[in-house]
Amino acid sequence: MAMSAQAIEARALRKTYDSTRGVFRREKVTRVALRGVDLAIERGELFGLLGPNGAGKTTMVKIFTTLLLPTSGAATVLGLDVVKDEWALRRRIGFVFGGERGLYWRLSGLDNLRYFADLYRVPPEVSRRRIPELLERLGLAGRERDRVELYSRGMKQRLHLARGLLNDPEVLFLDEPTIGLDPVGARELRVIVRELADAGKTIFLTTHYMFEADAICDRIAVIKAGEIVAEGTPRSIKTLVEDQGVVEFEVVGLPRERLDELRGLPGVSSVAVAEHELAQLVTVHCARPSEVMTQLSAALDGLKLEKLSSREPTLEDAYVQLIGDAET
Ligand SMILES: Nc1ncnc2c1ncn2[C@@H]1O[C@H](COP(=O)(O)OP(=O)(O)O)[C@@H](O)[C@H]1O
Ligand SMILES: [Mg+2]
To answer: N or C: which end of the chain has fewer CB within 10 A?
Structure first.
């Protein structure tokens, strides 16, 4: 079938912002937010765009949701062009931007949803059924008649999500959905987002928390200063830094030739020895630390190892290496 399988696609997508600086001698400044981004996201994927503040995440979401025009390049959602097919596209997507705005605090949660359902032209017979379903699914049932100003931060964000789902969108965009939530509220929201993806929705979410991307996303792209610097499953991105695993132990009387044997083990990239009182503290940087651990006793035959520990490389190691010292 030659049907376009991609839910979201960007080709050489560029965005620059022009502004002026100075009061008397006004100077034009151009800031490049996206430097030619290529991306393809399949239907049903939970895709995470991970990057530090100022990397271009919100800019990208605004372009995909038709709130901002690209400077050049192309972007499509469900095969629809963000510039030419703006209105057809909007009917089939939902979006939620982080932050507190966009709800009527003096109204109840239910009245907010009714108001937005009207605004989005959801037929009344559909919204009569869908609103209670959404309240139930997002854990707001029972509190729907309370004014929003009485809701916790987590409940407000779940109501935002309900608003974004009123038109039963095929693709949902979430810009830093857990920002400002306490850990419990953030975890509840992540569970709901994962459930929505498991139920078949395509989800594009942005985050600057690498553990969040690792926890729920099928695939992630890391963006730095307007450029994608890595893309893949969380696991495949971890393999970029696989030699950053560490095995440590203490030993007494380690002969030099044993050390060379250690350096020759598969996956070992470096071995450092520090004198520690009467013992030697040995640090082995390696891929697959658990495999290295099992080979240690053979390589160091007869020596007694103390305080043996290991650490697998984490997505955080990969993230820190990828974004370097960009602001986080
Ligand atoms: N309206 C704007 N005018 C000028 N520069 C902007 C504007 N919006 C964003 N930028 C700049 O574009 C870059 C990307 O911003 P943004 O997309 O908000 O990043 P993120 O969401 O990853 O924090 C930043 O350098 C930011 O300062
Ligand atoms: Mg942002």
So the answer is: N
8 phi and psi angles, rounded to 5 deg: -140, 135
CA atoms within 13 A on the CB side of 245: 20
Q: Are 43 and 5 in contact (CB under 8 A)?
A: yes
Ligand nearest to the CA of 56: 1
Pocket test for ligand 1, best of 13, 32, 58, 327 (most atoms within 8 A of CB): 58
pLDDT at 316: 81
> Is the separation of the CB atoms in 248 and 310 below 8 Å?
yes
Provide the 8-state DSSP code for 69. Answer: -
Domains in the chain (CATH in brackets) are: 6-239 (3.40.50.300), 242-313 (3.30.70.100)
pTM, full prediction: 0.83
DSSP-assigned beta bridge partners for residue 9: 40, 76
Please give the pLDDT value at position 1: 41
Ligand at shortest distance from the CA of 53: 1
Residue type, 226: G
Count Cβ neighbours within 10 Å for each residue of 23-32 and write b for 16 or more, e otherwise: eeeeeeeeee
Closest CA to 51 of 194, 218, 225, 186: 225
User: Which tens digits make up the pLDDT trace of 276-324?
Assistant: 888 999 989 888 888 888 888 888 887 888 899 998 878 888 888 888 7
Tokens of 112: 């907010």
The CA 328 to ligand 1 mean position distance, Å, reads: 14
Taking the centre of ligand 2 as the mean of its atom positions, its distance from the CA of residue 62, in whole angstroms, is 10
Kindly state if the Cβ of 56 falls inside 6 Å of ligand 1. Answer: yes
**Dihedral angle computed from the Cα positions of residues 16, 175, 202 and 319, in that order, rounded to the nearest 10 degrees:** 80
What is the pLDDT at residue 23?
Answer: 78
